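re: ur question from yesterday

yeah so i grabbed the chain u mentioned. its 147 aa long if i counted rite. heres the sequnce exactly as i have it in my notes:
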Amino acid sequence: MASSAGAGVCLCGCVGGCATFNKVGTTSAIAPDAYTVEVKTIKVLLDKTPSLASVGGSVKIIDARLPTPVIIGRTGKSTYAVVSLLCPHRGVEVEYRHEDKMFRCASLGHSKFGTDGKLIKGLTKKSLSPYAATLDPTDKNRLVVTL
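ran it thru and got these C-alpha cells back, copy pasting raw so excuse formatting
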C-alpha cells in the first residue's frame, strides 16, 4: 500500500518556496464583514481586523470589486502602507516585512519593494502600485484606502 506521508506538504525543500508554485503568501485575508468597497475606496473597520491591531501586522484583500488585490501593512501607530498584492514578475503574492520596512515577494526570487511600492531589487522590472491610506478623521476605527 502506498504511503501518503507528506500529503499537503511542500516537497520543494526550501523555506518559503511553496509560494513559487501556488502563488499564495502567508498573509491572512481580511474578513468580508471588516471592509466595504465603494467607488474608488476601501473602508476597513479596524476593530474587526485583528491582524492590523498592532504595528507590524498585515492583511490582504482579494475582492472582485477591486481593480487588483491589495495588501495593507501597519507601519506605525497611525500609519499604514497599501500596495498591490501581486508581484509583477510572476503574480506571486507579496508579504509585509515590518522589521525590514518593505514588502517582499513570497516566491523564491524574493523581489523587494519599499513601503511605497517602489522596486528595491529583484527579478521584476516594475514596482507595485501604491494606494493612499488614512484614518477617517470622523472615526479613527476606519481606515480609508483610496484606489
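noticed a couple things. The chain has one helix and eleven strands. also The longest strand covers residues 139-146.
anyway ttyl
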